[in-house]
Design brief:
Blueprint: H1 2-17, E1 32-40, E2 44-51, E3 56-62, E4 68-73, E5 79-83, E6 92-97, E7 102-110, E8 116-124, H2 127-140, H3 144-157, H4 162-180, H5 192-211, H6 215-229
Antiparallel strand pairs: 1-8, 2-7, 3-6, 3-8, 4-5, 4-7
Helix pairs in contact: 1-4, 2-3, 3-4, 4-5, 5-6
Length: about 230
């Protein structure tokens, strides 16, 4: 069982890390509340905006110069949301439903304190983002069946997002180990239907990554898919 568990963990790690350094295609943007390009010197910048209770917002902080960290505070300085690295990327994203009418502060930070140029956007969340965030929350509590359904819904909303295919593959593998971990003695014991589902998602994600110029990550995913395909049941 140990070798199978290590194999499943290795696959899961490849899913988690596959976004690093990639220029991922973005969902169609909704209404933008705040957009700024600037330079953090040395390590932090803040911006405020007016928000309303129940408002669903996406806040993104992206940089090629440093590892971004995002923090959202209410008018009392209390933390509303935080993110450091989103979806396998070093860039940060917060998807949040605002708890009250208030003046909110976005804190843009450099993780290592080195600073640099960045892009910050506060905008209305897209349906894809809200559904993807639900899937990620379900993964956190190991509700793999629910996560698979949510990732599938996210794919239906925007089939051009490789992150949803990768998330669904990870959820399928998580469900396999949760339900059949004691019966898995080797990777070949992964049920054929689950194996084919993971292969299909890996290959679809690889195609999307390649189309966006992330050739190295696409090649890595295809290697993972081929590894699964060569297993004799």
């Amino acid at each position: 069982m140990g070798s199978a568990r290590r194999f499943l963990q290795a696959i899961a790690i490849s899913v988690t890390l596959s976004g690093l350094g990639m220029a991922m295609p973005q969902p169609l943007l909704a209404e933008t509340l705040l957009e700024n390009q600037g330079t953090i010197t040395p390590a932090e910048a803040t911006y405020t905006f007016e928000g309303t209770e129940g408002q669903e917002l996406t806040i993104t902080l992206e940089s090629d110069d440093f590892d971004p960290v995002l923090l959202l505070l209410d008018s009392n300085g209390e933390e509303v949301a935080f993110n450091d690295d989103f979806g396998g990327s070093l860039n940060s994203k917060i998807i949040v439903t605002l708890p009250a009418d208030d003046t909110y502060t976005v804190v843009a930070r450099s993780f290592a304190g080195d600073g640099g140029d960045y892009d910050l956007v506060v905008r209305a969340s897209t349906p894809f983002e809200l559904t993807f965030a639900t899937a990620e929350d379900l993964m956190m509590v190991e509700d793999f069946e629910g996560a698979i359904a949510a990732y599938t819904e996210a794919i239906d909303l925007d089939p051009e997002q490789s992150s949803a295919y990768l998330g669904r593959a990870q959820a399928v593998l998580g469900q396999v180990y949760t339900e059949q971990g004691d019966q898995i003695e080797s990777p070949a014991d992964i049920p054929a239907a689950a194996r084919e589902a993971v292969i299909a998602d890996f290959e679809q994600a690889a195609d999307l990554m390649e189309a966006s110029g992330s050739d190295n990550w696409a090649e890595s995913l295809r290697e993972q898919a081929q590894l699964l395909r060569l297993i004799d049941p």
